[in-house]
Amino acid sequence: MQPIEILPWNDNFDTGLPIIDQQHQQLVLLINSLAEHLSSHAEQAILTKVFDQLADYVAYHFETEEKVWHQFLSADDLEVEHKRNHEQFITQVQQLKHSEIDLSSNEAIERILRFLIQWLVFHILENDMYMAKVVQAIQSGLSTTDAKDKADKEMRQHINVLVETILNMYEKLSILTLELGREVDTRKQIEAKLRLAANVVENTLDAICITDDNHRIIDANPAFYQTTQFQPDEVLGKKLSEIKSGLNKQPLATNVSEIVLKQGHWSGVVSSLTKTGEGMVEWLSLSLVKSADDASYEHVAIFSEITHLAERLSSMEHLAYHDVLTGLPNRILLTDHLDLSRASSKRNDSYVAVCFLDLDSFKPVNDQYGHDAGDEVLKVISKRLQSVIRINDTVSRVGGDEFVLLLVDLAHADSYKELLDRVLQQVAQPIDIGGEKVKVTASIGVTIYPIDDNTTELLIQHADKAMYMAKQQGHSRYHLFKSTSD
Fold first, then answer.
1. For residue range 70-127, what is the model confidence (pLDDT) as tens digits?
2. With contact defined as beta carbons under 8 Å apart, do 439 and 361 qualify?
3. Which CATH superfamily is domain 11-157 in?
4. What's the CATH architecture for 197-307?
5. Which is deepest, 82, 89, 324, 441, by most CB within 10 Å?
6. Residues 6+ away with beta carbon under 8 Å from 360
7. Which of 233-242, 312-321, 353-362 has the highest mean pLDDT?
8. Which DSSP symbol is given to 205?
9. Quick check: pTM over 0.70?
10. Hey, what CATH class is 322-480 in?
């Protein structure tokens, strides 16, 4: 058999820092070595030795990484959090080794491999990649704050790379299992490989089932029954789509059948419900297996549960388009909403008010009570703004103490005034911070589309300029933008 590469190195893993990338590649080699020894039924002593080598190298790698981060981000929150992640991982590995791990058990090794792979992939593509981007930005001459902003923007574009890499990993695992089963089936006389195939199918954590040419289930492994929560007598003879409800959805159901018949294989994400109604997201690898004379065929379906990955993707997508502190839409999502609002305004002959809000006297709150108190004020103000605007309007945080409100579907050009009067009133209410009452007010700049018939970016800029005019006129007021040509 060819050497098993359960986690193939991918160029997407490159952080751009050579010493870090070299050590990441060595970690991948050690994980693949552990998988290869597992597949060959190596003795427990050998598996223990490889596992110890991996654990020792992880500790060495963490030490190297932390020196790099410390050089550029000494005492920064990023460095502290990254080091804490390292410590938590080492603790988890030690717990695996001393309590759960039984290196004579294939199931235990597979569980460990999944844990190591998932942690390493996410750690490289999320944490290390972000840290590397920050360091490289600092090396280019940017301040730490600007370097973080630059890295944040680049990482938003990295989400799809992360998901694609991990799903490819699952697909490779599924194909490996399927190919092993096929090889064993064609060489039934080799007893050792027959036992290996049975062991793979019976003990893998992936759910596997075989259907006839009418998609009726004729066999399934224990993981299939465990994940679906059905008993064998409730599964055998039933159509696969009766057990995996996601396969009933159109156009997915038609596309899967057509592609499998034409190409012999289909893989993709399927969302289904268990017997008790729990939702689960799986990576399905479905293959057509023909008989020697092509007279009949069966389907082999391998389901790898990726519910936690789907949830993590959803969380990452939310972070990409929302402010971390307040949960409000960020500038990216604001731009999308304003683009849509402009188009709707033209169709419906209505107005959109773009309102740029900046808090007055916010800096003294930070200076006197600390940044935690400042963060609490921002969260309170965010909730107050949301309580005032209408359901179709948008309030977003675009920086420090700056917010942008989109008031849409206005019947008249001055319909925004009543809403902004309420906004100013709500913002000015005292806020309790640890028993102390603090008060901030707001200065708001307004521009009206399509009276101000400009691009999304210019509309925000014009509202920003009007906000500065409001500040010059005194606090807790709004000012309407007027072009120099008016």
1. 999 888 888 888 888 888 888 877 776 665 445 455 556 666 777 777 777 777 777 8
2. yes
3. Hemerythrin-like (1.20.120.50)
4. 2-Layer Sandwich (3.30)
5. 82
6. 440, 441, 442, 443, 471, 475, 476
7. 353-362
8. S
9. no
10. alpha beta
